[in-house]
Amino acid sequence: MGAPLLQLTGVSRSYGKRTVLHPVDLSLDGGQCVALLGHNGSGKSTLLRIAAGRDKPTKGKVTFDGRPMTENDARVRARVAVVGDTVACYPDLTVRQHLQLVAVAHGVEGADAWIDHVLADRLLSEHAKSLPSGLSSGQLQSLLLASALVRPRDLLLLDEPEQRLDPDARRRLGDLIAAEAADGVGVLLVTHHAELARAVADRVLVLREGKLVADGTPDEVLSDDAADTTWQTGVAGAAR
């Protein structure tokens, strides 16, 4: 057995005397989806940034395919796609030009045909010539997802990708995540939506005030009769 695609061992993060993430262990293989649930400020996004190599843990270590994870590693840039929780676009580039830029940067062959496919998949074909200023918040979120899909990836890190999406778009997001895992991509998903986690995740971790309070299968963690329900207020409700 080889090393997990992504492994976090005893990872914690402090800022001065304030600990925002207590020690967490997490491993993720290709074809697996792990979901992180929790309230705002629970440490989910901090853990995702550390997993992406965009922040360094105060203690512990992170490896990608058996090697230390760092954002500056060419292998990481080539094989890890991240969709953050903020929308960052070039104001003077159209939707298609954004995707062309990503495709060129990653040496994608047959880019035009693949871009057409991704635009259709994310329901952006009619907006291919639009600038970001002409898009709705949901369409901007779809553009972020499309930018990740148009490039090669072995690991997909998603920080609340359901934000700004309507119910139908969230359903299609679930289909997308399931398809990524079926294609062998490892997916780490930060979300507020318990229903999305239940639909796509193999494993669910719940953080509360920076501490891991639940870890198991969706049925174990999200069942109505789960023994520890201290984290559920607000999290399960967010899915409704």
Automatic annotation (TrEMBL):
Transmembrane segments: none annotated. SUPFAM superfamilies: P-loop containing nucleoside triphosphate hydrolases. GO terms for molecular function: ATP binding. It comes from the Bacteria. Residues 6-234 form the ABC transporter domain. PROSITE patterns: ABC_TRANSPORTER_2. It comes from Streptomyces fildesensis. Keywords: ATP-binding, Nucleotide-binding, Transport. This is ATP-binding cassette domain-containing protein. The keyword Nucleotide-binding applies. SMART domains: AAA.
